[in-house]
What does this fold into?
Amino acid sequence: KQEVTQIPAALSVPEGENLVLNCSFTDSAIYNLQWFRQDPGKGLTSLLLIQSSQREQTSGRLNASLDKSSGRSTLYIAASQPGDSATYLCAVSGGNQFYFGTGTSLTVIP
Amino acid sequence: GAVVSQHPSRVICKSGTSVKIECRSLDFQATTMFWYRQFPKQSLMLMATSNEGSKATYEQGVEKDKFLINHASLTLSTLTVTSAHPEDSSFYICSASNVDSNTGELFFGEGSRLTVL
It folds into this structure.
């Protein structure tokens, strides 16, 4: 069974810093990998989707990379802002199954 | 991106009553929708996979008679928590992917906070 791990579980950085969130998975046979953001008491907002044939995706200050062979993905956030404070989750899909990591809780300090 | 709407966003009910939560894909069709439960400060726990026109597939440990799922159309799935008890209090979230898209991208509803008194 696919297992998804996110490190660190929590991260606190000063505003303006660049940061990297990590996601690792045990089975490299994935269909795609998706990064989400969740604000407290809210649903999940899709940030970036990387299909299995892709290496990275970019949206604004966010860049996500995928290395299937090593079972890793990173989410890079440039010039962090207090509004980026949230929990970030990665999910990998294999067919019709989606497996979620436990999330990284990010706090950006003004 | 595609929009998934959940209703109600919050519900408070008495123990023993049943509560229905709706999940709608507003601008796309979804043959499959997923229902999750989330406890405070924890990740999502998949409860069941809802398939349009057929019975839902429940994860191990999830009581199908307790959590009734109906997926009657390509845009609507409902979760009914029957005879709710305080331990059923939780945050319930649904998700769906666009049947016409080959990316498999998953879109989530806003979640429904259930409190059982």
Chain B touches chain A through 23 residues (CB under 8 Å). The mean pLDDT of chain B is 91.
